[in-house]
Design goal:
Layout lengths: L10 H22 L1 H9 L21 H6 L13 E7 L7 E6 H18 L6 E4 L7 H12 L3 E4 L5 H11 L3 E4 L1 H13 L11 E5 L5 H11 L2 E8 L4 E6 L8 E3 L4 E6 L13 E7 L10 E7 L1 E2 L11 E2 L4 E2 L4 E3 L2 E3 L1 H9 L4 E10 L6 E8 L1 H13 L2 H26 L4 E5 L14 E3 L6
Parallel strand pairs: 3-4, 3-5, 5-6, 6-7, 18-21, 19-20
Antiparallel strand pairs: 1-2, 7-8, 8-9, 9-14, 10-11, 11-12, 12-15, 13-14, 16-17, 18-19
Helix pairs in contact: 1-2, 4-5, 6-7, 7-8, 9-11, 10-11
Bound molecules: 5'-O-[hydroxy(phenylacetyl)phosphoryl]adenosine.
């Protein structure tokens, strides 16, 4: 059973809702946000000219850069007194991408998250161990609101604390785990070492997302925990988790809450709108947000849409699981970052050059990141010379300096992005140079699908 009636209505009624909300949103933005109004004027569109859903194509796209350019609040449409919550994601320059929510926005978020929880089979009888991070990240609070709305009891764990997660899972009898898939696999590995058999616990449902994961990873999670894991997708700019979700009955694609987030698929190179079934970049228009409504936001996520009826009864348009991104954003253990953030750190440090490579791998269940950085010629020449004819004290000093560089880079990266990486210094000239766009990432993780 779906949570709300909009999930099962017929196409004509859905289009009516979407058009009404789209018209309202465009008029609202035009009237209240000078920066956005300028863009609409430049595109030659007036709110009263949006007469059908197809007219959405006349609206300009919005990008992450556009939000960043208006940091922190200039793209907000609601006034400050109506904003009741902020969230943010990390940005390429260290400045986050900020989102503001009004009370109504929180209500919409709670509603779409209640739909996602219901879709996964969560009810008021469940104990939801919420492992998504609480804080600026939207995963923790968004899931918290939705799970409470369906009447479940939330255990607000946030991320990390593996041992404690396992202890409370056992002691409280958690029935639902909400987490990034990779962290869940990490918990499983740690539990196995402690002799825990998760299949003997009361767990039965997983509501997982925030990063790409494959069908084989799902199978492995299902088996390891004795649960049915459902996918959930979302992004902070649009609302957070709850943009789309899988139903536990079918688990083959995600139902998009299209009465709030209007989807299109475009060719990322030309911007041309593609038909259902064609793969391209997902573009979302928020048709109910008040804090920071976004028109035709380019998510950079690649998927395809379909209108196939689902046996669960939901009529919402479906999207396939996300199979990649059009930019170089990396998602490691649920944390998003761009290689350029690492570059900005390297550039500030002496003795290393801006030639670097981010190597991502998944040797077990967790993603691991190694940042390889070339040392400068000067450093190399001095260390090399010392090694051949220097005194013991000089050699030890060089080694100490190299160690210090590694420690400093590790600390700066952890401070900026929040994840622990391995840093390796390599000799000058050893990172492959490319003639065109520099290749900064060597992603060795198994491909999703
Ligand atoms: O990750 C919101 C979220 C929290 C979704 C909890 C699901 C569960 P951001 O940190 O802004 O928001 O990251 C958004 O993460 O553009 C995708 O590239 C990726 N992403 C999110 N969910 C999925 C998923 C949250 N289910 C970015 N599958 C998005 C693949 C996902 N990628």
């Amino acid at each position: 059973m779906a949570w709300s009636k909009e999930e099962t209505i017929n196409r004509d009624d859905m289009r009516r809702i979407q058009l009404g909300r789209l018209q309202k949103t465009v008029a609202y933005i035009y009237g209240k946000n000078p920066a956005y109004r300028k863009r609409l004027e430049k595109a030659g569109v007036k709110p009263e000219e949006i007469k059908s859903l197809d007219d959405i194509r006349r609206l300009p796209f919005t990008t992450k850069q556009h939000i960043r350019d208006h940091y922190p609040f200039k793209l907000f449409t609601a006034s400050q007194e109506d904003i009741i919550e902020f969230h943010a994601t990390s940005g390429t320059t260290g400045k986050p991408v900020v989102v503001g929510y009004t009370r109504n926005d929180i209500e919409v978020w709670t509603e779409v998250m209640a739909r996602a929880c219901t879709g996964a089979g969560i009810t008021k009888n469940d104990i939801v161990q919420n492992i998504y991070g609480y804080g600026l990240f939207t995963g923790g609070l968004g899931t918290h609101y939705g799970a409470q709305r369906v009447g479940a009891a939330v255990l607000p764990m946030s991320g990390g604390n593996t041992q404690r997660q396992i202890m409370l899972m056992q002691d409280f009898g958690s029935t639902v785990l909400t987490s990034t898939p990779s962290f869940l696999m990490h918990i499983h590995g740690a539990g196995r070492e402690m002799g825990v058999d998760f299949r003997k616990l009361k767990l039965r449902v997983g509501l997982l997302g925030a990063e790409p994961w494959s069908e084989s990873m799902r199978q492995s999670i299902d088996e390891s925990f004795g649960i049915k894991a459902c996918d959930m997708y979302g992004l902070s700019e649009i609302i957070g988790p709850g943009v789309s979700f899988e139903c536990h009955e079918v688990r083959k694609g995600l139902h998009i809450n299209e009465d709030w987030f209007y989807p299109e698929i475009i060719d990322p190179d030309t911007g041309k709108v593609l038909r259902h079934g064609e793969e391209g970049e997902l573009v979302l228009t928020t048709v109910g947000n008040e804090g920071q409504p976004l028109l035709r936001y380019r998510t950079r996520d690649i998927t395809r849409l379909s209108q196939e009826p689902c046996i669960c009864g939901r009529t919402l348009v479906m999207m396939e699981r996300i199979c990649g991104r059009t930019d170089d954003m990396l998602i490691i253990r649920g944390v998003n970052f761009f290689p350029s953030q690492i570059e900005s750190i390297i550039l500030q440090r002496k003795g290393v050059s801006p030639h670097y490579m981010v190597v991502v791998d998944r040797p077990g269940s967790m993603d691991e990141v190694e940042v390889r950085v070339e040392v400068t010629d000067d450093f190399m020449t001095k260390a090399g010379a010392d090694l051949i004819s220097g005194s013991e004290a000089e050699i030890l000093k060089d080694v100490e300096m190299a160690k210090q560089k590694v420690q400093n880079l590790k600390r700066d990266i952890k401070d900026m992005i929040g994840i622990t990486v391995k840093v390796s210094l390599v000799p000058p000239g050893t990172i492959p140079r490319s003639e065109g766009k520099a290749k900064r990432v060597d992603d060795r993780r198994p491909k999703v699908r």
